[in-house]
Amino acid sequence: MPLYVVATPIGNLGDITARALETLRDADLIACEDTRRTRAMLTHFGISRPLSSLPAFAERDRAEPLLARLRAGAKVALCTDAGTPGISDPGTELVRQAALENIPVIPIPGPSAVAAALSVAGLSSDRFLFLGFLPRKGTARIELVERAAACGFAVVIYESPERVARTLVDLRDVFGDRPALVARELTKLHEEIARGTLSTLSAKFADGARGEVVIVVEGGTPALAEVADETSIEDALRERIGAGHSPRDAARALAEERGLPRRAVYQIAMRLPPL
User: Hey, where are the domains in the chain?
Assistant: First the structure.
């Protein structure tokens, strides 16, 4: 029998689809990220089915018993705590293994925080890049943001509430002060949708945020190309450095003044010969 990949509400239970409910009611077994949360959702809709835990940290080990049930003809539904399985949530490994064994995998589409945030952003998003959760720190984090900035597409990021301000600052340093959106607690009681530039949003959320956060940054000219007039930048940097500013401070001030990517301006400053 097929493996059904079922999207579930990201907050408001009213967003579940009729097809998702039908699939969950008919399943012989439901594989889920957290049985407690899924059971609460099922109870709300009057559904009682056997559950099997499939958390991200143990997905590879727990996939085999589910595959055995599928091979034996069971109808298995896969869901996560909220949203679509495999999108920054468990499910990818089970789907991959089922596909390798030619077990049909059927999507039951529905709620997605990515699509919800993009739909209300009001930003150019015909093409977008989804980064999920960024690495928490270090070179890997900055390199990923720089690669995203270089593509010129709108960028969508998931972030934890305690790191949202830092992430907005990091994005500002690489992208320049682009228009952006912060969507907090989408579809829930305390939903908040904040629009502005990366600078204004980083100031707004300087003390953090409550709940799950999605950040959308407008696409545009790749960030490094935004400083194409390097002669003007170099002259302004020389003037500031000559006045006693360090290259880093000079680059920071000039980037903020002109709305340019701070790291790109700093790279120019580091290429200048000593005064």
Answer: 3-111, 114-220, 225-271
Dmax over Cα atoms in the chain, in whole Å?
77
Least confident range from 75-84, 125-134, 221-230, 263-272: namely 221-230
Helices (H), 80-175: 92-100, 113-121, 139-151, 164-175
**What radius of gyration do the chain's Cα atoms show?**
23
Distance CA 20, CA 85 (A): 13
Strand order in the sheet with 105-108: 51-53, 29-32, 76-79, 3-6, 105-108
Q: What is the DSSP letter of 225?
A: G
pLDDT in tens, 14-60: 999 999 999 999 999 999 999 999 999 999 999 999 999 999 898 98
Other CB atoms within 10 A of residue 60 CB: 11
C-beta separation of 123 from 175 below 8 A:
no
Is residue 118 a contact partner of residue 156, using CB atoms and an 8 Å limit?
yes
* 114-220, CATH topology level: 3.30.950
Are the C-beta atoms of 148 and 131 separated by less than 8 Å? yes
How does pLDDT run across 127-155, given as a tens digit for each residue?
A: 999 999 999 988 899 889 988 988 889 99
3-state SS class at 82: coil
75-101 average pLDDT score? 96
- Domain covering 3-111 in this structure, CATH number: 3.40.1010.10
φ, ψ (nearest 5 deg) of residue 246: -70, 155
Helical H segments across 158-216, by residue range: 164-175, 198-204
Contact (Cβ atoms closer than 8 angstroms) between residue 32 and residue 53: yes
Enter the pTM of the model: 0.81
Angstrom distance (rounded) from CA 102 to CA 96 = 10
Q: Answer yes or no: is pLDDT of 244 > 90.
A: no
